[in-house]
Amino acid sequence: SVAVPQPIADSCNELCARQCPDSTAFIQPPPVVVTFPGPILSSFPQQAVVGSSG
After folding, report:
1. Is the pLDDT of residue 54 over 50?
2. Which among 22, 24, 29, 46 counts the fewest CB atoms within 10 Å?
3. How far apart are CA 21 and CA 25, in angstroms?
4. Which residues contact 53 (CB under 8 A, 6 or more apart)?
5. Could you give the CA distance from residue 39 to residue 32 in angstroms, rounded to a whole number?
6. What is the 8-class DSSP label of residue 49?
7. Cα separation of 37 and 48, whole Å?
8. Quick one: pLDDT at residue 2?
9. Rounded to the nearest 5 degrees, what angle is found at the Cα of 46, between the Cα atoms of 44 and 47?
10. CA angle 47, 38, 46 (to 5 degrees)
């Protein structure tokens, strides 16, 4: 009886902790990638193309 509630709590905590960081990591990459290519492509379109090709 005591061993059943313990594992359940651990699973719940792990899922919550795993989802929290996942959400943050997913939200951070998109904005950073979109913000960098925007000004970089507009400011140095030639350099951006060369870097992408290489």
Report:
1. no
2. 46
3. 6
4. none
5. 12
6. H
7. 8
8. 52
9. 65
10. 15
Q: How far apart are the first and last CA of the chain?
A: 62
For 9-35, give one letter per residue: b (16+ CB within 10 A) or e.
Answer: eeeeeeeeeeeeeeeeeeeeeeeeeee
Q: 49 pLDDT exceeds 50?
A: yes
Name residue 49's amino acid.
Answer: V
* Tokens coding 52: 């992408």
Quick one: DSSP state of residue 13?
Answer: H
Average pLDDT, integer, range 39-51: 53
Which helix or strand (DSSP H or E) is residue 43 part of?
A: helix 37-43
Cβ atoms of 37 and 48 closer than 8 Å: yes
